[in-house]
TrEMBL record:
<keyword id="KW-0949">S-adenosyl-L-methionine</keyword>
<dbReference type="InterPro" id="IPR023165">
    <property type="entry name" value="rRNA_Ade_diMease-like_C"/>
</dbReference>
<feature type="binding site">
    <location>
        <position position="55"/>
    </location>
    <ligand>
        <name>S-adenosyl-L-methionine</name>
    </ligand>
</feature>
<protein>
    <recommendedName>
        <fullName>Ribosomal RNA small subunit methyltransferase A</fullName>
        <ecNumber>2.1.1.182</ecNumber>
    </recommendedName>
</protein>
<feature type="binding site">
    <location>
        <position position="128"/>
    </location>
    <ligand>
        <name>S-adenosyl-L-methionine</name>
    </ligand>
</feature>
<feature type="compositionally biased region" description="Acidic residues">
    <location>
        <begin position="308"/>
        <end position="318"/>
    </location>
</feature>
<comment type="similarity">
    <text>Belongs to the class I-like SAM-binding methyltransferase superfamily. rRNA adenine N(6)-methyltransferase family. RsmA subfamily.</text>
</comment>
<dbReference type="InterPro" id="IPR011530">
    <property type="entry name" value="rRNA_adenine_dimethylase"/>
</dbReference>
<keyword id="KW-0698">rRNA processing</keyword>
<dbReference type="InterPro" id="IPR020598">
    <property type="entry name" value="rRNA_Ade_methylase_Trfase_N"/>
</dbReference>
<dbReference type="GO" id="GO:0005829">
    <property type="term" value="C:cytosol"/>
</dbReference>
<feature type="region of interest" description="Disordered">
    <location>
        <begin position="294"/>
        <end position="318"/>
    </location>
</feature>
<feature type="binding site">
    <location>
        <position position="28"/>
    </location>
    <ligand>
        <name>S-adenosyl-L-methionine</name>
    </ligand>
</feature>
<feature type="region of interest" description="Disordered">
    <location>
        <begin position="1"/>
        <end position="21"/>
    </location>
</feature>
<keyword id="KW-0489">Methyltransferase</keyword>
<feature type="binding site">
    <location>
        <position position="104"/>
    </location>
    <ligand>
        <name>S-adenosyl-L-methionine</name>
    </ligand>
</feature>
<keyword id="KW-0963">Cytoplasm</keyword>
Length: 318
């Protein structure tokens, strides 16, 4: 079938490297040298590293990743961009330093792809990701409290919305400390590297951004019962303004809960945002030790995805 006018335009545009940004794929090209350097530095890359880049776009970050001599595996959903990238990085592909998979990262069976394409498992992630799928990307990279990624990355450097960075890196007792904070910090050290203004992108996004670095690790005091911990966090944060004990009374006997809060020297009037990850683990473990019937009523699995409290804008229509 002959290419349609639209396809021809896309081919022409992609040859010239002036692909028009597609809003439905969350395309915002990073244009700021300083920020690009910060991102690459945060990855702490060496030639021995294998880096996964989600959404290479027009390859501006990809080029800098390749300059470190690390191996780069990129996953891009947009066919026109894949054509463009294959031309642009033809020499790196020939040498094997750069590999590109055209796929929706969320739908890709990553382990299977590594086998099918005979690829080494990447040990790091460095990416300017599409914001509208931040939560599922985080979950795919980190896993969940119940089932952490069994093959964790050494580090994960991402550009995300500033609001998400604030939540991932929040301290106990601050408003940003939510279920996402606890889930992410249970699975990884989270730090903000630098804020990024909209003007660093073309076209500029509507929101402020930030570079973050996550270092996955087993939590130093792992919960004895991670399923219970996941449930406590979901239910504990179900109504942020309420006291923790009022949220949890739907699944835990009031007296049991009072006794446990007392034993942990936690204020009975505390709200969920007042607790840090270690407090949640201590709460879960203390409930586990109670020598009665299980104090927690079972809840359905679906209450526990990492993105439960995320409320990001849906993708805009192109
Ligand atoms: N890294 C580039 C582009 C960032 S924009 C830069 O910094 O300039 C986000 C990129 O993710 C776009 O290239 C977009 O096409 C791609 N993308 C969007 N959804 C995706 C998905 N589900 N899987 C893989 N890539 C995706």
């Amino acid at each position: 079938m002959a290419p349609s006018g639209k396809q021809k335009d896309a081919q022409k545009a992609s040859k010239k490297g002036n692909h028009r940004a597609r809003k439905r794929f969350g395309q915002h090209w990073l244009r700021d040298d300083h920020i690009l350097n910060q991102i690459v530095l945060a990855g702490e890359l060496s030639p021995a590293d294998h880096v996964l880049e989600i959404g290479p776009g027009q390859g501006i970050l990809t080029q800098r990743l390749l300059n470190t001599q690390a191996q780069v595996l990129a996953i891009e959903i947009d066919r026109d961009l894949c054509l463009q990238l294959s031309e642009q990085f033809i020499a790196f592909m020939a040498s094997g330093q750069f590999r590109l998979i055209e796929s929706d990262f969320l739908k890709l069976d990553f382990n299977q792809a590594l086998i099918d394409f005979d690829l080494a498992r990447p040990n790091k992630v460095v990416a300017n990701i599409p914001y509208y799928i931040t939560a599922p990307i985080l979950e795919k990279l980190l896993g969940t409290i119940r089932s952490p990624n069994p093959q964790p990355f050494d580090n994960i450097v991402l550009l995300v919305q500033k609001e998400i960075s604030d939540r991932l890196c929040a301290s106990p007792g601050t408003r940003a400390n939510g279920a996402l904070t606890i889930r992410a910090q249970y699975l990884a050290e989270c730090e903000e590297i630098c804020p990024v203004p909209p003007s660093a992108f073309k076209p500029p996004p509507k929101v402020e951004s930030a570079v973050i670095r996550l270092r996955p690790r087993p939590f130093p005091t792992p919960a004895k019962n991670p399923i219970q911990l996941a449930q406590l966090v979901s239910v504990g944060f179900s109504q942020k303004r309420k006291m923790l004990r009022n949220n949890l009374q739907s699944i835990i006997d009031r007296d049991v809960l009072s006794a446990v809060l007392d034993r942990l020297s936690l204020n009975p009037q505390i709200r969920a945002e007042g607790l840090g990850v270690a407090d949640w683990v201590a709460l879960s473990d203390a409930l586990d030790e109670i020598d009665e019937k299980p104090p927690i009523h079972q809840l359905p699995d679906s209450l526990n995805p990492l993105d439960l409290d995320l409320d990001l804008d849906p993708p805009e229509q192109a």
